[in-house]
Amino acid sequence: MQSQLTYSAEELCRLAATVLETRGVPSDDAALTARSLVQADQRGIFSHGLLRLPLYSEALRLGGINPAPSMTFSWGGDAVATLDADGALGQVAMQAAVTRVIEAGRKHGIAAVAISNSSHYGAGAFWSDQLADAGFLSFITSSTGPVVAPHGGLTKVLGTNPLTLGAPSADGWPLTADLATSNGAYGKVIAAKNEGRPLPEGWAVDAEGNPTTDPEAAAAGSMIPFGSHKGSAVAVLLEAFASSLTTATYAFETVDIWSNPASRMNNGHLVVGIDTEAFAGRASTEARIADLQQQVRNAGPAGKTVHAPGDPERIRETEAGSTVQLPASTADQLRTLAQELSIPSIL
């Protein structure tokens, strides 16, 4: 395990926002994106944290991400809309979509926004948490670059196609499932490469289809869907949900910014929110979800607590408090980036 270094979350947010502003991102959008990355690191999701800031910076510099987009909503009905994000940071596009879903969901009980021309939006729980705070159940997914071969295949047809499901709870912590549909997120392959460590077995195959734990060989080969043919089926359907409602590209049509930071990826996202108040009522639903969480936690043998979905990340965030522990390799990259941009660094 690589050593980790501890920093102030507030200072890391300021550093990340300054990097983005230096690349032309408006201050509010920069602050939003910085918060999403730092929160991921606080929760131990290093694959979706500040590890990605140098990539965002380079894509902003080369045109793969538009720092100041002119996003356009088109309403397909009272409760549904599409959003052309104009190459925006995914976090900026998602914030606009989540806000609209909550507004429309309050009126109609359910709402959805499908997004095109976007980019990576960070950890999905950052968005499902907002919906849970508003009393909404949520379904969120996205297309990505091509890194996953379907079950039985060798060609990288699919992305890691994340799935985030969230539900509000009287417990105080939402019930949250936030996962890639590959055995590991692609950011974890990058992290393993940066840190000089192998991947877990069963995550990837090389270009010839042989199992590999080498991150370099995995990048040249493909990631494996979780759950064999069942997980592969879920990944394929999420690709359809994320991209087919708009002009967003499928993964196999996309050049990933990991490969070419100048690429406009045209990622598709889908956000669906269900207002619990419109059904049995928010208080009733949140009480029932809290009961479900507690039953899961109590399901272990005597003296052992089972985690409900989302618990491990929340526990890490709570323990972190106002600090962030970064892998040393990420801290090194951020230090280099700050130097290149002549930004004062805390690292």
* Average pLDDT score: 95
Structural class: alpha+beta
Q: What would you give as the CATH superfamily of the largest domain?
A: Malate/L-lactate/L-sulpholactate dehydrogenase, NADPH binding domain
The shape, in one word, is globular
What is the top-level CATH class of the largest domain?
Answer: Alpha Beta
What does this protein look like?
With 347 residues, this protein is α+β, with helices and mostly antiparallel strands. It is built from 11 helices and 12 strands. The protein has a 7-stranded mixed β-sheet with strand order 2-3-4-11-5-6-7, with helices on both faces. Strands 9-8-10 form a 3-stranded antiparallel β-sheet. It has a two-stranded antiparallel sheet with strand order 1-12. Helix 1 (9-22) crosses helix 2.
Structure summarized in a few sentences:
By secondary structure, the protein is an alpha+beta fold. The chain has eleven helices and twelve strands. The model has no long low-confidence stretch (mean pLDDT 95).
Task: Please specify the SSE layout and strand pairing.
Layout (H helix, E strand, L loop, with lengths): L3 E5 H14 L4 H16 L10 H10 L9 E4 L4 E5 L5 H19 L1 E9 L6 H9 L2 E7 L20 E5 L7 E5 L6 H10 L8 E2 L5 E2 L2 H6 L1 E2 L4 H16 L23 E9 L6 H16 L13 H10 L2 E5 H13 L7
Parallel strand pairs: 3-4
Antiparallel strand pairs: 1-12, 2-3, 4-11, 5-6, 5-11, 6-7, 8-9, 8-10
Helix pairs in contact: 1-2
Keywords:
11 helices; 12 strands; Hypothetical Oxidoreductase Yiak, Chain: A, domain 1; 347 residues; oxidoreductase activity; Mal/L-sulfo/L-lacto_DH-like_sf; seven-stranded mixed beta sheet; oxidoreductase; Ribosomal Protein S8, Chain: A, domain 1; alpha+beta
